[in-house]
UniProtKB/TrEMBL annotation:
InterPro entries: Cold_shock_domain, CSD, CSP_DNA-bd, NA-bd_OB-fold. This is Putative cold-shock DNA-binding protein. It comes from the Bacteria. Keywords: DNA-binding. Pfam families: CSD (PF00313). The lineage of its organism: Bacteria, Pseudomonadati, Pseudomonadota, Alphaproteobacteria, Rhodobacterales. The keyword DNA-binding applies. It comes from Primorskyibacter sedentarius. Gene3D superfamilies: Nucleic acid-binding proteins.
Amino acid sequence: MVTDLEMQMTPGEHVQGKVKWFDPVKGFGFVIADEGGPDILLHANVLRNFGQSSVADGARVEIAVQRTERGVQATEVLGIVPPLGAEGLPLADFEEIDPEIIANAPLLPARVKWFDKAKGFGFANVFGRPEDVFIHVEVLRRSGLSDLQPGEALAIRMIDGKRGLMATEVCSWESAA
């Protein structure tokens, strides 16, 4: 016989909403469902299973949830769309670059060397290339991310810009593959 608690905890309900906030240092954040209701806990482990270590505040998400005695929790991230207003080129460094060159840059596998959210930038290495690739925090935000961890696998589009090699788009390796 199925108890009321087990009925409440049945996973699989899909919810669409917006990230209220996510703090990778704390290891969790909350999502506001489009249909209202209580905030939904988004734990870092659930986000990591999607292949990301962070998500930008205001990003649109589709998640599977379960209802427990402690509230509603995300059990799986099914999709992430960057926050509204994040489109376009956020850096003056890209102003003189032909937008077609940026759009046609190949998506390449890379690993985060380091990233400092407080400084607003970091670097990654593309597999098989010795040069560092500059990553600006606004490029992350436009890509739906808020932070990166050393060693994290990424897929990036890059151009040769004013600062050398610069990322124009960043996504988790899993979402690109």
